[in-house]
């Protein structure tokens, strides 16, 4: 396992994050999952206020070793479905959800606190100021945002920069070989602001592990009959590359995400499954394998990215010497 810096901070985070969304109890198997992750060098555990008992279980599992982990949680989701103010990204829900999470996690601080999803009803200025307050209080060390448009994140970080508030250091998005929409705006935006990117859904509910390639495969999180040719083509390509490299399909799918500089959030139902996923760390995909994977499913950047890249070397726009320019 290798490490990267979280955004423009000095915090070291492992290249693979452990997702705790499916933790239902502090069972011996869940303990083995956490131990396997730690033994591989992993240090980032990601949970959320709305993941059922996950926060409480993570708090129990980390007793006696909490400070060795970079602990991440999220707020936005409702604490009480009968109360409108028990949800959203406004100050009241932030403060009350944070206090609830601290109790559940049995800690007095959270390393990385994510805004879970864009709340269109709360001004982003209110959210950023409230987040800066909890950072200044010491209850949160760094902040990030999940599942929001690029323009909003850009505005939020620009407001934070001008007003001396804490900016978002991390961005969380869905990203996989099958779902590459974030390459259009969100990934370039994150790069411009120096943000770390974490990805959920990297195996597409097991589709990219190859488990549903056989039409007779038993349904699990997905029914094989519901998969279209696009999904099956991607799964076949991943399995083919895995066979050529002598690794598993899951490792190939995760390695493709890692190659983009993105942190996959890996979850597992068993320690053995997690160990297999962790094998993606250090797996270098040959260029030919990458071309094979990406050609299996159609993807277009769309306007304006494709247009800008097309004219980037145009003498008609940038002059006859544009080919001599070493740019970004």
Kindly describe this structure.
Helix 2 crosses helix 3 and helix 7 runs antiparallel to helix 10. The protein is globular, with a radius of gyration of 21 Å. It is an alpha/beta fold and 328 residues long. Helices cover 38% and strands 14% of the residues. The relative contact order is 0.11. The chain has a single domain, classed as NADP-dependent oxidoreductase domain (TIM Barrel, Alpha-Beta Barrel). It contains twelve helices and ten strands. A hairpin with a 6-residue loop joins strand 1 and strand 2. The strands form two sheets. The protein has an eight-stranded parallel β-barrel, surrounded by six helices. The chain has a two-stranded antiparallel sheet with strand order 1-2.
Question: What is the H level of CATH, i.e. the homologous superfamily?
Answer: NADP-dependent oxidoreductase domain
Tell me the name of the CATH class: Alpha Beta
Describe the sheet with the most strands: 8 strands, parallel, barrel
The main sheet orders its strands as: 3-4-5-6-7-8-9-10
Q: Which spans have pLDDT < 50 for at least 5 consecutive residues?
A: none
Classify the secondary structure makeup into a structural class.
alpha/beta
Strand-residue proportion: 5-15%
Mean pLDDT, nearest integer? 95
Please state the overall shape, judged from the principal axes of the Cα atoms: globular
Query: How many extended strands?
Result: 10
What's the SSE pattern? EEEHEHEHEHEHEHEHHEHHHH
The number of distinct helices, counting runs of at least 4 residues, comes to 12
Provide the helix percentage.
25-40%
The termini sit apart by 29 Å
Pfam family, one: Aldo_ket_red
Organism: Nonomuraea polychroma
Domain NADP-dependent oxidoreductase: 16-297
Keywords: Oxidoreductase
């Amino acid at each position: 396992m290798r490490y990267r810096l979280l955004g423009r901070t000095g915090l070291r985070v492992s290249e693979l994050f452990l997702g705790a969304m499916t933790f239902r109890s502090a069972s011996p198997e869940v303990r083995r999952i956490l131990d396997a992750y730690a033994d591989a060098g992993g240090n980032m555990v990601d949970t959320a206020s709305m993941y059922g008992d996950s926060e409480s279980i993570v708090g129990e599992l980390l007793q006696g070793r909490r400070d060795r982990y970079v602990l991440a949680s999220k707020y936005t989701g409702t604490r009480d479905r009968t109360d409108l103010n028990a949800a959203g990204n406004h100050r009241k829900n932030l403060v009350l959800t944070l206090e609830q999470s601290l109790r559940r996690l049995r800690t007095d601080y959270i390393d990385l606190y994510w805004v879970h999803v864009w709340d269109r009803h709360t001004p982003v200025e209110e959210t950023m100021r409230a987040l800066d307050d909890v950072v200044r209080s010491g209850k949160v060390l760094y902040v990030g945002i999940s599942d929001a448009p690029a323009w909003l994140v850009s505005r939020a970080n620009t407001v934070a920069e001008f007003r001396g508030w804490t900016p978002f250091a991390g961005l969380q998005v869905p990203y996989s070989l099958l779902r590459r929409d974030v390459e259009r705006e969100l990934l370039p935006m994150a790069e411009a602001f120096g943000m770390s990117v974490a990805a959920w859904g990297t195996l597409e509910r097991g589709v990219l592990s190859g488990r549903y390639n056989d039409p007779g495969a038993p349904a699990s999180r997905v029914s094989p009959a519901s998969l279209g040719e696009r999904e099956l083509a991607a799964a076949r390509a991943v399995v083919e590359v895995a066979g050529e490299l002598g690794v598993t399909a899951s490792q190939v799918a995760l390695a493709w995400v890692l190659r983009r500089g993105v942190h996959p959030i890996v979850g597992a139902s068993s320690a053995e499954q997690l160990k297999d996923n962790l094998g993606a760390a250090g797996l270098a995909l040959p260029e030919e394998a990458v071309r094979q994977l990406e050609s299996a499913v159609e993807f277009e950047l769309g306007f304006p990215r494709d247009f800008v890249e097309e004219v980037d070397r145009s003498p008609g726009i940038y002059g006859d010497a544009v080919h001599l320019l070493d740019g970004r």
